Amino acid sequence: MQEPGNSAERQAGAGQHRFSGLPEGGVLQVAHRVARLQFVRYAIVSAVSLAVDFGSFLFLLNISGVRPTVAGVVSYMIGLVVHFLLSVRFVFDAVATGKSTSRLMSGYAVSGLAGVAMTWAIIAVTTSLASLPPTLGKALAVVTSFLAVYALRRSVIFRPRGETA
After folding, report:
1. DSSP states along 54-106
2. pLDDT at 23 over 50
3. For 111-141, what is each residue's pLDDT tens digit?
4. How far apart, in whole angstroms, are the C-alpha atoms of residue 71 and residue 81?
5. Would you state the pLDDT for residue 36?
6. How many percent of the chain have pLDDT more than 90?
7. What's CA 133's distance to the chain center, in Å?
8. What dihedral angle (degrees, nearest 10) is formed by the CA atoms of 52, 56, 58, 63?
9. How far is CA 114 from CA 31, 45, 101, 134, in A?
10. 137 CB contacts (<8 Å, ≥6 apart)?
């Protein structure tokens, strides 16, 4: 019994993805490159948002004279909104999700709260149980929460409609 297609067709298509004509693995390589670029864009957006957060905190604390806790919460919320707006514009494809802007923003806020909770827990554990300096605990929390929240936002909040996790 002969395989589908003639020998010349099989040889011409050897090593290529059957749908795209790209070399085998090419689709995965492109997807990996896009994911890396998305992560870099997310990191840049995070740095800009952190600068806005911290600048707002300093302004509220030193110029407006509000209490540090209030300044921290308000500046965090400002940074979260900036992060969302920049992420929708430069990082994630909001339209592909099929979700409304308010639903995306709600998910974004919840993921931000998850990051805050994770930060609190890591600092509590590293300073109380492990007796590490608070700055080291905070540094570990920043890295851990950054990666976890990015993964949550990428795989849940901004997952394209119809794509499985």
Report:
1. HHHHHIIIIIS---HHHHHHHHHHHHHHHHHHHHHHHT--HHHHT--HHHHHH
2. yes
3. 999 998 998 899 899 988 988 888 898 889 8
4. 15
5. 85
6. 48
7. 28
8. 140
9. 27, 19, 20, 20
10. 122, 123, 125, 126, 127
Q: Tell me what pLDDT residue 2 has.
A: 45
Gap between the Cα atoms of 135 and 3, Å rounded:
65
The token pair at 82 is 């900036």
How far lies 129's CA from each of 6, 7, 74, 134, in Å?
Answer: 68, 67, 30, 12
**DSSP three-state, residue 165:** coil
Query: pLDDT value at position 10?
Result: 41
